[in-house]
User: Fold this.
Amino acid sequence: MTERPSLAMGLKALGLVSLVLGFALFAPGAALGQDIEGAKDHPLVSRLQDFYISEYEEFEFDEHMFYDASDKEYVIRGHKWVIGYDLKEGAAVPGQVKIRQNYINAIRKIGGEILYEQGTMRVVRDDKEVWIDLWVAGNGDGYQLTIVEKTIMKQEVVADPKALAGDIREKGKVAVYGIYFDTDSAVIKPESEPTLKAISDMLKADGALKLYVVGHTDWVGKLDHNMDLSGKRAQSVVEALVSKHGIAAGRLVAKGAGPLAPVAANTTEEGRKLNRRVELVAMQ
Assistant:
């Protein structure tokens, strides 16, 4: 997979001094090896020694496409920074590998995840998921960080056991959207607990009810992988209900449907979100 320089970096390489969309590529002081006015490092990551900020833009809400090692695309929206660094005149050039490895080591040290060693990283801190895209110039004398802070959605609408039971009685199933997993993971996130409790309360109120717990994914990635992932996620839900909420294991069976039963088009992020769900299906 090739590197993906930003439009701003590309224009900079061509010698253009500005971009209509608002990037301040050059400013007084940058030519002297000083940070451009108003620029600052992102609070999560500092710069390498002997580099100064030559490009800086901040957006209250924007999006950026990140890629992992298998070229899977992630469109992340939130508070966004684009920060370009150039090497000070006369300083030793560190090279591409040293720049990348410094950031990889720093992100790993604080518990972050490296999705692609060419420059895609992710860190979950407090209530934020921070994505980092590192692009390094071919000769290693400059690099750019694109950082998006995605606020993790807090569970504000708690599933109602009576409403869950009502849908199962009327339709034979109910879609549940309050169970959360990290991307490509079957580990249930802590904010899923209110929904798991609602499911367990429903099951305790009706001791005869037995359920298939069915995991569903979107169409991003390969079919076989998504089928496997959806089954593992369903099994994680079953295990949580049994081990943490006291539901008898014989009342629950985990199944994975992968992306084969969508409820919306997978061509938009909104549709993909609807397709990523757990369904509770009554055993006949």
